Task: structure prediction
Amino acid sequence: MNRRLRMWVLLLGLAGTAALLVAAAFRLPAFGTGFHPYGDRAVHEALARQTANTVAAVNFDQRAFDTLGEETILFAAVLGTVVLLRQARDERHVEPAPADVAAPVRRYALVLLPVTLVAGLYIVAHGQLTPGGGFQGGVVAATALHLLYIAVDYRALERIRPLGLFEVGDAAGEAAYLVIGVAGLLAGSSYLANTILPHGTFNTLSSGGTVPLLNAAIGMEVACAVVVLLARFLDQAVEIEGEGANEGENEGEGERT
Amino acid sequence: MNAWLVAAAVLMVAGLGPVLWCVATGPLRRRVAAQNTGTLLVCLVLLLLARGYARPPYTDVALVVALLGPVGTLVYARLLGPEMGDDPQQGPLTKAFAVIASAAVVLPLCVAEGPGRSLVKLLLIGAILVGGNLISSKALAGARPKEADDHG
Amino acid sequence: MADVLIAVALLLVAATATAAVAVRDPARQALVLSVLGLTLTLLFTVLQAPDVALSQLAVGSALTPLLILLSVRKARRRSLDQVRAEKEAEEGGT
Result:
């Protein structure tokens, strides 16, 4: 296929997509009107299961199976990154040097770290009540830990980050979601059905049946996955060097790696 | 559309417009400073929107901006520090703007809120916002070229 | 009248996205990208989707810049190392 032909194929595809999009846009209900067939049903179902945040009810109850797929995508992506960014045979490991960060910045980061961590857990725990949930809170909590790299140095982060434990946590979060799904099956209804727990009182922390549990599983999986992902990137950027570096010191590096 | 939403729209146009210009042009240190100011402005706009729409849970979004915005700026100060070593430093005007703009938005919101738990939350967000912004400005001013060769 | 806010947010997103493409250096692009994340947060909030806004914010404010800058750092060091190694090889050969 030459360049010209490829451009024609691309143009054909783009024109087809554009035509379909325009045709679909004309069939949409007008913007800003009160006609919401899906929204009305979703809100009705969410209120029936005592879940105040309808988005959480859609993600973790009505369409919980979709969320399982999304969670698995993240899990697989992180797994792929771990394999791709491992230390190769022709690379060697160097000790990270301590960084020079201004004292007020360091102090501020050490104060901010627990605050951000608590904010992340708060967003996970209130997923069924207010905007947020496992994904958002998990990312915030994982970012909090990396304040140690950003404002102190990499060795400080390595000290509080037992990577093996986070890898286990990543897998355990994924597994917990699957197990909660099977629990619905064992209780006599369908996979991931929100019937195994009482739905509780509207607008309290324990409301929503399995929604808070699934949120917690996702929160754990995402937080651990982000930590593992960033660890690979940080190792590559900070600790692992290619063979071309510092030519003179490279003799006998086979033993060192 | 109430007064809070009008204020939010004005802040979006008059604040984020210049921020966008500064972040896309000029020396690197000014770009990072503009990004820092951008997080501050977005947090203030989000607080105004939460009040304007009368939806208190929306303040959670502002809380996350106040917490993570400065973290982003610290990332840039840390990893781009060697590159912006010789750029001109930001004057005290940026810091003064951060304090004045935050006070001008958060204090009226507090007055409208009245005493209660939401007031404590608002004041907390305001404190984290101003503190984080000033600290990341400091980190930005301290970024020097001598770190150019470390691996840390 | 509430549409004014939506229009302003959409225009900001369009302008920032264009700027992100127009800036060519990856490190500087990362800066515009994080401002794009902020404007998207505003757009989602104005469209009454705070959950999506929070997702965008969590990922876009610190995580994405960190990943991009670490990759840029690694790539730059590798190309620097290659240049250095080639130069040394040339000097050794002559």
